[in-house]
């Protein structure tokens, strides 16, 4: 079962050379976001596809999940606390979403 999940995640990476469902940036229409649109202390970061600016995540917001859930605000000193796994470097573990914490 675990091997099937790893293979499925790997196949998503390999398909078309793009990350998890990403289109080439030339085909993406980004919504214009300014840092002033974000909550206080958040900064603009690039989305998981590397195409569009988005606001970073705040305290107790979901994050990670192979970056699909977003990045925590470094300006606020936050990090993405991932679920506890036997092997934190395992791709199945890294694909799990976390929560932004201090």
UniProtKB/TrEMBL annotation:
Keywords: Disulfide bond, Signal
Coiled-coil regions listed: none
A GO term from the CC aspect: extracellular region
PROSITE patterns according to UniProt: IGFBP_N_2
Domain IGFBP N-terminal: 18-88
Matching InterPro entries: Growth_fac_rcpt_cys_sf, IGFBP-like
Signal peptide: 1-19
Superkingdom per UniProt: Eukaryota
Protein name: IGFBP N-terminal domain-containing protein
């Amino acid at each position: 079962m675990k091997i099937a999940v790893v293979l499925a995640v790997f196949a998503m990476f390999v398909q078309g050379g793009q990350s998890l469902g990403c289109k080439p940036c030339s085909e993406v229409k980004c919504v214009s976001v300014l840092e002033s649109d974000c909550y206080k202390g958040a900064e603009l970061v690039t989305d998981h596809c590397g195409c569009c600016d988005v606001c970073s995540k705040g305290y107790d917001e979901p994050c990670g999940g192979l970056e699909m859930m977003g990045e925590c605000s470094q300006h606020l000193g936050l990090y993405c606390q991932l679920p506890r796994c036997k092997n934190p470097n395992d791709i199945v573990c890294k694909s799990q979403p976390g929560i932004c914490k201090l």
